[in-house]
Inverse folding.
C-alpha cells in the first residue's frame, strides 16, 4: 500500500480523469433520485397543470385551470383558512419556543429532562397524537368537555364548531369574523406539536452566543429585561429569522395534523377540512381535488399557485430579514 | 431574589412540560382502561384494572401486524437508501474534486425549494406509469434521497482531518477505500443520526403512503391507524392502544439516541 511520493505522483499524473469521474459516480445515486422525484416533478407538474387531466391526460386547456382557480370560492376560502392558520401558528411557535429555550439556557437543573419532554411530540406520529387530541376535544366523550361539565361551564363543540370565536362571543359575523373554533383547536395542537422543535433550534442559537458578551453587558449595568431585549434578542435574530421562514413554509404545507384532527379522527362523522370547510387549508384542498375528485390537472395548478405564493412570501421575509437581522461579526 | 427567579423559571417550564406531556400520559393510561372508565370524570391517571388485553384486542381488530411489517420494510428501506445515497454524495462534496462541484452543490440545495405539494401529484403519475403503485418501490424509492442529510453528512465529513485525506492520496489510496476504511468508521454517530431521522420521517409520513397505496395489504401504520380510527368509532381504549403501538418504536428510538437526534435537528433545522 505504501508508495513513495514520487511514484504516487506519477500514478496520479498517469490517470488524471480518475478522480473527476469518481466525483460524479459518487454523486450519481442521490442526484438521479433528486432529479427524478424532486426536479422532474416541477416541470412535469407545470405541464400537467395545462391539461384537463382526470385518470389520464384528456385535453390541453392552456391556462384555464389557473383562470378557474381565480374564480373558485373554495380555493379562496382555503387560502383564507391557511392565512388564519399561519398567523395563528408561526408567532406563537416562535414566542413559546424562545421562552422555553431562554429559560433552559439559564443553567437550570433538569435541563436535559425538560428538553426531552418538550421535544417528544416532534418525533411522534402526527396521526397518533392527532387522534389523542381529537378525542380530548370530542364534544360528547372528550376530556375537555367532561371537565367543563364538571365545572358547570358551557361545553363548545370544539373541532365540530364552524362558527368563529368572535361570533361565539357575539361580535363579528360572516367570513371575516375570524377563524372557526375548529381551526383554533387545530392551530393549538399544531403549536403543541412544534414548540419543542423551535425551542431546540433556539437553544442551539443561544448557546452559540459567547458568554463574554453577556458578562460585558452586565458589567455595563444591563440586566434582566434590558439584557434580553438589547443583547439576547438581537443576537439570536438569525435564528428567529430562520425559524420564521421554516415555520411559515411548514405551516402552509401542513397536512397530516389537519387531516387527522378534522376527518380521520374520532370527531364523530366529520369530514376532513370540516366543519363547513373552515379547516380546509390549501394542502387539504389540493389533496381532495386530486385524490377524491380526481381533477389532477386542476389540483396541480392549485399546487403551483400555492408554490408561487410561498416563494413570494419567502422572498419578502428575506428582504425584511436583511434589514432586521444582526449577525455576529457580520 | 435569585432563588425566586429560578423557582419562577421552573414553574413556567413545569407547566409547559405538563401540557406537552399530558396527551402522552392520557394515551398511555387510557389504553389500559375499560371503556366505561375511559370516559368517566373525574378521570383517573392510573387505571383501576390494567387491561393489557386492549392491546391484543386492537391487534385482532385490524391487520396491525401487517401494517407494522409494511412500515418496518418501508422505513428501513428509506433509512438504508437515504444513508447510502447521502454518504456517497456528501463524500464527493467533502473530499473529491471535480469540475462543477460548487454548482452541483448549489443545485442540490436548490431542490429544497420545491415543496412536497408540487412533487406529490407528478410523482403519483410517475409511479403509476412505472407500475409501482401499491408496491414497496413506490413507498421507498421516491424518499430515497435527502438533501438535508447530504448537507448534514457533508458537515460531519468536513470535520475529518484533512491530512488523513492528503496522506491517503499520496499513498495512492483509491477513493472508495478511503471512504470505507476512514470516513465511515470516523462518522458512525453522524451516519446513525441520518439513518434514524430518515427512519422517523418515513415511519411518521402520512401523505405519500396514503397516495401511493390503496390496498389494505400495503397500508403503513399511519394510514392503517387512521382507517382504524374511522372504524372503531367510540371504542377509545382500543384506539389508544393502537396509537401507543404506533408511537412506541419512534419514542423508543428517540429515547435511545435523544442527544444526537436533538443536536442533529438543532443544527440543521430539519422540520418534518
Amino acid at each position: 500500500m505504501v508508495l513513495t511520493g514520487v511514484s504516487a505522483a506519477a500514478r496520479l499524473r498517469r490517470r488524471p480523469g480518475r478522480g473527476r469521474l469518481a466525483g460524479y459516480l459518487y454523486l450519481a445515486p442521490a442526484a438521479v433520485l433528486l432529479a427524478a422525484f424532486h426536479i422532474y416533478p416541477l416541470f412535469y407538474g407545470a405541464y400537467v397543470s395545462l391539461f384537463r387531466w382526470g385518470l389520464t391526460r384528456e385535453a390541453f386547456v392552456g391556462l384555464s385551470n389557473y383562470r378557474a382557480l381565480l374564480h373558485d370560492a373554495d380555493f379562496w376560502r382555503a387560502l383564507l383558512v391557511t392565512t388564519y392558520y399561519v398567523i395563528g401558528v408561526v408567532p406563537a411557535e416562535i414566542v413559546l419556543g424562545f421562552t422555553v429555550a431562554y429559560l433552559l439556557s439559564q443553567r437550570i437543573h433538569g435541563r436535559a429532562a425538560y428538553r426531552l419532554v418538550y421535544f417528544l411530540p416532534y418525533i411522534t406520529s402526527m396521526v397518533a397524537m392527532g387522534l389523542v387530541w381529537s378525542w380530548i376535544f370530542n364534544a360528547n366523550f372528550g376530556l375537555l368537555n367532561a371537565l367543563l361539565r364538571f365545572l358547570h361551564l358551557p361545553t363548545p363543540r370544539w373541532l365540530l364548531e364552524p362558527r368563529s370565536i368572535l361570533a361565539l362571543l357575539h361580535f363579528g359575523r360572516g367570513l371575516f369574523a375570524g377563524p372557526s373554533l375548529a381551526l383554533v383547536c387545530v392551530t393549538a395542537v399544531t403549536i403543541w406539536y412544534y414548540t419543542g422543535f423551535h425551542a431546540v433550534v433556539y437553544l442551539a442559537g443561544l448557546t452559540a452566543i459567547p458568554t463574554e458578551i453577556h458578562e460585558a453587558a452586565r458589567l455595563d449595568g444591563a440586566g434582566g429585561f434590558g439584557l434580553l431585549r438589547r443583547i439576547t434578542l438581537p443576537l439570536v435574530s438569525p435564528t428567529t429569522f430562520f425559524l420564521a421562514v421554516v415555520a411559515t413554509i411548514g405551516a402552509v404545507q401542513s397536512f397530516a395534523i389537519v387531516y387527522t384532527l378534522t376527518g380521520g379522527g374520532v370527531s364523530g362523522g366529520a369530514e376532513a377540512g370540516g366543519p363547513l370547510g373552515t379547516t380546509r387549508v390549501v394542502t387539504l384542498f389540493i389533496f381532495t381535488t386530486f385524490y377524491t375528485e380526481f381533477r389532477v390537472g386542476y389540483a396541480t395548478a392549485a399546487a403551483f399557485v400555492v408554490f408561487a405564493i410561498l416563494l413570494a412570501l419567502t422572498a419578502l421575509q428575506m428582504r425584511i430579514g436583511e434589514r432586521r437581522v444582526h449577525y455576529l461579526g457580520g | 431574589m435569585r432563588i425566586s427567579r429560578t423557582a419562577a423559571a421552573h414553574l413556567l417550564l413545569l407547566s409547559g412540560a405538563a401540557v406537552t406531556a399530558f396527551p402522552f400520559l392520557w394515551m398511555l393510561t387510557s389504553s389500559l382502561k375499560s371503556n366505561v372508565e375511559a370516559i368517566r370524570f373525574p378521570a383517573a391517571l392510573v387505571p383501576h384494572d390494567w387491561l393489557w388485553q386492549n392491546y391484543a384486542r386492537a391487534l385482532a381488530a385490524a391487520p396491525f401486524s401487517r401494517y407494522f411489517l409494511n412500515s418496518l420494510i418501508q422505513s428501513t428501506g428509506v433509512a438504508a437508501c437515504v444513508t447510502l445515497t447521502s454518504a456517497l454524495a456528501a463524500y464527493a462534496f467533502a473530499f473529491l474534486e471535480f469540475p462543477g462541484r460548487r454548482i452541483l452543490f448549489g443545485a442540490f440545495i436548490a431542490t429544497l425549494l420545491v415543496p412536497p405539494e408540487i412533487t406529490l401529484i407528478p410523482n403519483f403519475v410517475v409511479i403509476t406509469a412505472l407500475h409501482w403503485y401499491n408496491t414497496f418501490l413506490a413507498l421507498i424509492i421516491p424518499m430515497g434521497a435527502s438533501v438535508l442529510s447530504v448537507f448534514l453528512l457533508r458537515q460531519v465529513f468536513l470535520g475529518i482531518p484533512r491530512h488523513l485525506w492528503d496522506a491517503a492520496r499520496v499513498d495512492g489510496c483509491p477513493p472508495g477505500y478511503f471512504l470505507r476504511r476512514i470516513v465511515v468508521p470516523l462518522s458512525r454517530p453522524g451516519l446513525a443520526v441520518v439513518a434514524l431521522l430518515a427512519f422517523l420521517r418515513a415511519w411518521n409520513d402520512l401523505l405519500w403512503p396514503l397516495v401511493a397505496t390503496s390496498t389494505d395489504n400495503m397500508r403503513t401504520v399511519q394510514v392503517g391507524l387512521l382507517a382504524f380510527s374511522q372504524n372503531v368509532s367510540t371504542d377509545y381504549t382500543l384506539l389508544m392502544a393502537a396509537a401507543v403501538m404506533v408511537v412506541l418504536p419512534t419514542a423508543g428510538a428517540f429515547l435511545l439516541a435523544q442527544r444526537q437526534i436533538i443536536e442533529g435537528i438543532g443544527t440543521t433545522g430539519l422540520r418534518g
User: Anything to note?
Assistant: The CA atoms of residues 176 and 261 of chain A lie 23 Å apart.
